[in-house]
Design goal:
The chain is mainly α. The chain is 87% helix and 0% strand. It comes from Gluconobacter oxydans (strain 621H).
Length: 89
């Protein structure tokens, strides 16, 4: 239990930040799912468009510190490769 005013304030701040981070992470996952669904459906243009929309959202999450930058780079690279493979197939 927090005894000082500053500790209580930190608890409030942490809770607000956690809620924000959860929302950002959820939003990012939703965009990724849209890309993956388009890839599974075999829809080249929809996959490319969904990826185009998902990319800045994922980078924004990394910029805000919700997820590590290297993790986002890896995920973007793999998604991009899958979209590209779909376009050439």
């Amino acid at each position: 239990m927090a005894n000082t005013a500053s500790a209580r304030k930190r608890i409030r701040q942490n809770e607000r930040r956690r809620e924000r981070n959860v929302a950002r992470m959820s939003r990012m996952r939703t965009f990724i799912k849209k890309v993956e669904l388009a890839i599974q459906a075999g829809d080249k243009s929809a996959a490319a468009e969904a990826f185009k929309v998902a990319q800045p959202e994922m980078q924004r999450a990394a910029g805000k510190g919700v997820i590590a930058k290297n993790t986002i780079s890896r995920k973007l690279s793999r998604l991009s490769a899958r979209v590209k493979a779909l376009a050439t197939a």
